[in-house]
TrEMBL record:
Its cofactor is [4Fe-4S] cluster. Keywords: 4Fe-4S, DNA damage, DNA repair, Glycosidase, Hydrolase, Iron, Iron-sulfur, Metal-binding. Belongs to the Nth/MutY family. It comes from Bosea rubneri. PANTHER family: ADENINE DNA GLYCOSYLASE (PTHR42944:SF1). Adenine glycosylase active on G-A mispairs. MutY also corrects error-prone DNA synthesis past GO lesions which are due to the oxidatively damaged form of guanine: 7,8-dihydro-8-oxoguanine (8-oxo-dGTP). Its EC number is 3.2.2.31. This is Adenine DNA glycosylase. The gene is mutY. Pfam families: EndIII_4Fe-2S, HHH, HhH-GPD, NUDIX_4.
DNA sequence: AAGTCGTGGTG
DNA sequence: TCACCAAGACT
């Protein structure tokens, strides 16, 4: 330890935060107490998701489900539809389950401690700390990707993530000031606007002097972490069948697993060794299927996907196979399609139209 | 305790 | 194009 290096003070960060804090829909104004329901819902939405993507969803969600009780009473299809396009759909299922617990077992009030929050579905170490700190001003650590980056740089922590997480947490708690909620948000604002992954604006940072990584000129090398490998491309087929009246054949996916509980156009299993010659085996029914030239490409977190699109027109008296249903064209937008099937559907409709 | 689980933006 | 990243949780 170089004794001449100044130690970081939370007060310097809070002073910066008081001048530069971001204005966000779920964030209380200075001096106001935040609404736990809004804080919680926003935290779930923001897991691994950008603020830009979340904002419109959050506004619609709050208009549709203004209270935790309203959310608890809503049908799951309604919740999944409100979430469609945001990704990580288990978050939506857990969010709904959590609302039911809070409404049914806690009188509609969220637990006001980290431990109590941690018991609820969908709330892990980070979210429990964030809600405890932001909504209830508890001195809890909310260690997300931003905070990991800020702290590993500030203290030049060499241990790789996620192994260094307990150490990062200790460092945060050791700095905890008398404004825990603002401190938690200040750390995240700093990470999001100044202490960015690439080209951090160290000259504007309130902690530039005590930052050990900046002193060494190695800011961008933190946090240390092992490189992750990308999965093999998987292939599959998607069948867009339109009845003469415009209704489209769809089905709901199983509740668990990939895209669980969301709506899809029919298709088979996605495999790395998929054989296009056998694609029609996955067809939901017998029809004059026409294959579109351009496949639909989509990238999931752990594998790329290439979907071959087949289209067909069906007679008005066509029956939906077991487990499937026809959705009127005008109501397609009300279905909880994840993005990949929205792409497949759009490609299919486009293909049907030009024929 | 690695793998699973979406999507869109960025350099 | 491509790897990385974004207020992670769950198994």
């Amino acid at each position: 330890m170089d004794a001449t290096v100044r130690q970081p003070r939370a007060a310097d960060l809070l002073a910066w935060y008081d001048r530069h804090r971001r204005v966000l829909p779920w964030r209380a104004l200075p001096g106001e107490q935040a609404d736990p329901y809004r804080v919680w819902a926003s935290e779930i939405m923001l897991q691994q998701t950008t603020i830009t993507a979340v904002k419109p969803y959050f506004e619609r969600f709050m208009a549709r489900f203004p209270t935790v009780d309203a959310l608890a009473q809503a049908p799951s299809e309604s919740v999944m539809q409100a979430w469609a396009g945001l990704g990580y759909y288990s978050r939506a299922r857990n969010l709904h389950a959590c609302a039911k617990v809070v409404a049914g077992q806690h009188g509609g009030r969220f637990p006001d401690t980290e431990e109590g929050l941690r018991e609820l579905p969908g709330i892990g170490a980070y979210t429990a700390g964030a809600v405890a700190a932001i909504a209830f001003d508890r001195p809890a650590a909310a260690v997300d990707g931003n905070v990991e980056r800020v702290m590993t740089r500030l203290f030049a922590i060499e241990e790789e993530m996620p192994g260094a997480k307990p150490l990062v947490r200790e460092r945060v708690l050791a700095l905890m000031p008398s404004r825990p909620g603002d401190f938690a948000q200040a750390l995240m604002d700093l990470g999001a606007t100044i202490c960015t992954p690439r080209s951090p604006a160290c000259g504007l940072c309130p902690w530039r002097e005590p930052c050990r990584a900046r002193i060494a000129g190695t800011q961008e090398t933190y946090p240390r972490k092992a490189a992750k490998k990308t999965g093999k491309t998987r292939f599959g087929a998607a069948f867009v069948a339109m009845r003469e009246d415009g209704a489209v054949l769809v089905r709901t996916r199983p509740a668990k697993g990939l895209l669980g509980g969301m709506v899809e156009v029919p298709g088979g299993e996605w495999r790395a060794d998929y054989r296009l010659e056998e694609a029609l085996r996955d067809a939901p029914l017998v029809a004059q299927w026409r294959r579109l030239i351009a496949p639909v490409r989509h990238v999931f977190t752990h594998f790329p996907l290439e979907l071959t699109i087949f289209v067909a027109k069906l007679p008005l008296d066509a029956q939906a196979p077991e487990g499937m249903r026809f959705t009127p064209f005008a109501r397609l937008r009300e279905e909880a399609f994840p993005s990949v099937f929205l792409k497949a559907l759009e490609a299919g409709l486009e293909g049907l139209q030009r024929h």
